[in-house]
Amino acid sequence: MSRAVPLRKSLLVRLLITSVLIAVCSVAATAWLAVQTTTRAIQEEQGQVLAEDMDILRQLSGYAATHDDWSHAAGTLRTISQRTGRRIALTAGDRVPFADSAATGTSLPPRAAATVDPLRTDTYAEPGAQLTGVDPRVVGPYRLTTTERLSVDKLAVVRQLCFSRNGIRTRTERMPSGRTVLKGVDGTVDPGYVPAECADGRLNTPTPTERKALDALSALTRTCLDRHKVHLDHFVALPLEAASGATPVPYLTGKRLGDQDGPLARTANACVAEARLRQLDPYVAPAAELFLGTGDRPVPRFDMSAANKAKVVGVAGLVLALTVAVTALVATRLVRPLRALTQAARQPLERHVRVPVTTRDETGILALAFNELTERRERMEVQRKAMVSDIAHELRTPLTNIRGWLEVARDGLVDPDPELLSSLHEEAVVLQRVIDDLQDLAAADAGTLRLHREEVRADELLEQVAAAHRVGARAAGIRLVTEVAGAPWLDADPVRMRQALGNLVSNATRHTPPGGTVTLFAHREEDEVVFEVADTGGGIAPGDLASVFDRFWRAEKSRSRRTGGSGLGLAIVRQLVAAHAGTVSVTSEVGAGSVFTLRLPSPRPPASASGSD
């Protein structure tokens, strides 16, 4: 498995995607909920404000319909303002104030909310209705006196009783002028069928006050018709007043025009309307601009309806459930390999448990590293056991020889002659060599191996090593040759380098048959000095090349410790070269020999050496 983690498999990326997914769901749910509740609240608020504005306009239109000016409207404005919490101001067309619920000098809102004009209104209504034209509460000269009101009331009761006797149910209603009229139970002005005994016409006959007003209206209408040069040979129907509903209640003072849609009828109707406005104008307050503000209304507190509360709880529960589900799923997938690692780490050391690698993210890399660590620990354990066994075996042989000969000499079976002492000395030397090698390896492993560096010539170093082993090589029938290309220098500990090269030469002479050659070669490659020790021995099998530098390893397992060495020489070579920041390698061909190569960093040669060259 590659150690590089694909971006889509990265633990960080998956956590980020999970967080973004949860955040997006939360934001989307919150936005949807906010839009729903806010839209509903705005709609409700707009409806409430509109209804409130209409109510304020209705009340002010009623005031204007019953007063001829705005001089006493301040109290009414303050009362409405205190009830609604709104600022209310009335001004003329040039924004000169008539009345204002706010303090004097307070600036007006930028635009007027409506125009209060009871003679030209389309907003008057009892809730739910809209009328176009004159506010029905404008009665002007049509207001009945108390005596006339009582008389009309009696006539209305008589008419209602007559209708009741004939099976027609009606109800009485007082109009703004004080006149009482009959209406059907469904609210219509005309109950429909009128029995003959009830059709006396007394209830619909105008009172003296109404007749006087209608005569004035008739005169104004005739003046308008004359101005338009319209001459009629019959009377024009004049409405007495408008009802509070959508349909006016006509009280006629003449005959209707025959052609209601002709040009003469339209002119006559326009003149009647104009005359009525002129007649009522002195009795109403002048038109005023209405300005509405927020005033001292407190900021509405957050009051959530039961439906919105249920919606919030439902959405919050859904988001919470989604968050828990996604988190649990992701956490389970992330924790599963970590639990496997934890269980494997708690196993006894001797079991060397591995964990399955199921992912390619950081957790998978951790599992792979854990398995590799387990494998290295297992190999090290095997090597440790083998090293302990090899050390015991290496030390047992000379110690057994020394103990045996000493016991024999102590028992008087042999005399401690020079030959015996020489044999014991040779065994002690073997034992000392093994101990010295182990001490060198221990110092290298602990990082306490001391190097005394100095500038060393490679050719002189090879000559010293060759001189130390030439006698032994000659005795074994092996030719020892040194070759140096140029005069390379290196910064190294000459004693340790002689030890490393000497171990390689000793190893080569042991594995080279008589008549063979061991060659020591040194040359410079860029910033390195390369040493090669080549022999013409039997070579090393390809399967054993990886174990050459292991401790106590021998190519020939049957070779004795005395002739085959301790098995630590090449391991010491690797440690000494590593201490000099170099590398060692081996190439070999069975039957042709082996070549050990040492590469050491090489500084620039000293000035004196350059001059001598």
Structure described in brief:
By secondary structure, this protein is of the alpha+beta class. The protein has helices at 11-66, 74-84, 146-165, 208-227, 263-280, 306-345, 362-410, 418-446, 458-475, 494-510, 561-564, 569-579, 607-612, and strands spanning 87-91, 97-100, 114-116, 170-174, 180-184, 288-293, 454-457, 479-484, 489-492, 517-525, 528-535, 583-589, 593-601. Mean pLDDT is 77; it is low at 124-131, 242-258 and 558-564.
Mean pLDDT reading: 77
Shape: rod-shaped
Number of domains: 4
Backbone CA Rg: 61 Å
Unreliable parts? 124-131, 242-258, 558-564
Strand order of the largest sheet: 8-10-11-13-12
Structural class: alpha+beta
The largest sheet is: 5 strands, mixed
First-residue to last-residue Cα separation: 54 Å
Share in helix: 40-55%
Strand content: 5-15%
H/E element order: HHEEEHEEHHEHHHEHEEHEEHHEEH
Counting DSSP E segments of at least 2 residues, the number of strands comes to 13
Number of helices: 13
Can you characterise this structure?
- A hairpin with a 5-residue loop joins strand 1 (87-91) and strand 2.
- With 613 residues, the protein is of the alpha+beta class.
- The chain folds into 4 domains: 1-130 and 287-346, no CATH class; 140-283, no CATH class; 362-443, Helix Hairpins (Orthogonal Bundle), CATH 1.10.287.130; 450-612, Histidine kinase-like ATPase, C-terminal domain (Heat Shock Protein 90), CATH 3.30.565.
- The strands form 4 sheets. It has a 5-stranded mixed sheet with strand order 8-10-11-13-12. A 4-stranded antiparallel sheet has the order 2-1-6-3. A two-stranded antiparallel ribbon has the order 4-5.
- It has helices at 11-66, 74-84, 146-165, 208-227, 263-280, 306-345, 362-410, 418-446, 458-475, 494-510, 561-564, 569-579, 607-612, and strands at residues 87-91, 97-100, 114-116, 170-174, 180-184, 288-293, 454-457, 479-484, 489-492, 517-525, 528-535, 583-589, 593-601.
- The protein is rod-shaped and about 175 Å long.
- Residues 124-131, 242-258 and 558-564 have low confidence and may be disordered.
- The chain has 13 helices and 13 strands.
- 49% of the residues lie in helices and 12% in strands.
- Helix 1 packs antiparallel against helix 2 (74-84).
- The longest helix is centred in the N-terminal third of the chain and has 56 residues, at 11-66.
